[in-house]
Structure formats: C-alpha cells, structure tokens
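Incident log, structure service

09:12 report received: a user says their structure output differs between two submissions of the same chain.
09:20 pulled the input from the user's history:
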Amino acid sequence: MSAAPDDLTPMERARVAPEEGYALNRSNWDGRAQVHAASAHYDLEGWVADPTRVGAVVRRDLQILAPHLPEALRDGGDGIPRLDGLDVCHLQCHLGTDTLGLARRGATCTGVDLSPESLRVARDLATRAGADIRYVEANVLDAAAAVGATFDHVHTSIGTICWLQDLATWGRQVAALLRPGGTFLLRDSHPMLNVMGDTDAGTMTPAYAYFPLPVGESFTYVDGTTYTDGDVAPITQPRNVEWSHSLSEILGSLLDAGLRLEHVGEHQDLPWPAHPSMTQEGEDWVLPEPWRSQVPVALSVVARRPER
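09:34 re-ran on a clean worker, output below:
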C-alpha cells in the first residue's frame, strides 16, 4: 500500500465498486499530475536538459530484465542494457519519465495511463525532449483494445497494481499486448510489505489484508498531499482507492494468461519510502534492521509469451 504521512488516517476497508474506484483514482491522479509536474522529485526540466538521463527506476528495471534480452542488448557499454529495435508498451506510465528513459535506451515506446492530465504532461515532456513516444489514454484493463498493437516487451514499474482490482484481466491484457516470444517485466512493492501498517515508523505490524478482497470491497483513504511536494499544492480530489494482491494471485494471473515465468525476485530496496521507517541509501530506500532482513519490500517478475 502507499506510504502515509504521520497525520494521515489509515486506510479503511470499504465497499467501493471497481468502476467507482477507477473513476476516483483517475481524478486523483489528474490532480497529482499537476503537482508532480512542478516538483523537484520529477525534475522534468532536468529530463529535458540531459538527453542521457534514463532514471534510477529504469536503470534497475533493465538490469533485472537484462538476462532475458537478446545477448546483443544485455550490455550497453555503460552498465545499462539497450532496447534497440524493440517495440515497448509501458503500462501505467504516469508523467512518462520512465517511458522516456526506456525510449532513450533505443526502444520505440507506447505509454498507457488512466489519467488524461498525466498524459498531457507526458506528451509535452516527450516533445520537449525530442522523443517520438505514443501515448494512449486507457484503463490498463482495456489496454490491448485501446492500443491496437502488439509489442516485443511490456513494462510495468513501480507502484502500479495496487490501483487495479482485477488481476486476472490484467494478466490477459499483458498477454494480448505481447508478440510471441515477447517479455513482460513487473517491479512493484512486495505483497508482504503492503500488509504492514504504514502510519507509524516505530512498528512493523500487519494492518491490511494480504489476500484479495471480495469484489466490491477495497481499501480507501483521503490524503490531500502526495509523495512529492503536495504539502504546498493540495490534491483537488484527495480520495484514493486501492486493492490488495497476494504473491500467488500476481503470479497466477500471469500463468493463467499463458505466460511463462522466467524470473521472480524479492528485494530489500524500493525507489520510494513505502513505510515511514525507511531510510535512503544512495538512490534507494530500505528498512532498518531487523525488519530489513525480515520483510521483503519489492517484488520483480519477468515473464515471456511462448513462441507457440
């Protein structure tokens, strides 16, 4: 689940239908987009000024993906794999900074997001950065029909699937977007971390459901700030709706869609402080010991659509 400041009311389990939740989240992320675009956290001007920037998230993602890429792409000469010649679909792309990072590694990119305001910012960023990126507004659960194309690689990272209720449909959408032999990468917060209460830096105690909630139920909370500099620019629609997913549900949704798992990783670092006790080490955030050795904070998955 999402990180929370000290004064945030913890998430509550409530009856919110998926379509209502998606509408609330779309409005919420439209408001976040305006704040994020102006933030030092996203540093859009820095992305425009530095044509070599790919970002820490993409760099780590591609290092995980590297063994599953064609051998000629695995070492770009700078420690980051290349994506030359690959068509890539980036799901839940938000402002498009990571999409731009993927494009700068040689990919032909299509970004998909629910929020039209996020995509407005993403298109402007791509234009100013001189990148030819297609952006499509769609719920990821309708992505295949909305995009109308297939890809060599589908990318989802990071902080994404908590905003989706139906992972079975998600898995089928990923499979439908992939060409035979194509790869899929997911990196996200670990389901075990998502169970933990996230409003108290002094505790690491289960507070939320690990297993999927019944259809029609969700976790919801109101937060007028965001994870960048929302304190000075409140979010106009502050309600968020999230859903819990177990490790078996995540992996099973991909297997049931016909994909073959090639990698499952559990990690001790995230690119954002998902729990208030986390501290920064370099570009990443980690839990203090002994929790660091006890609770995985990130999950990575690489899957492939079989050739036949």
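09:41 both user submissions now match this output. Likely a transient worker issue. Closing.
09:42 reviewer note: Residues 1-8 have pLDDT under 50 and may be disordered. Residues 18-37 form the longest helix (20 residues).
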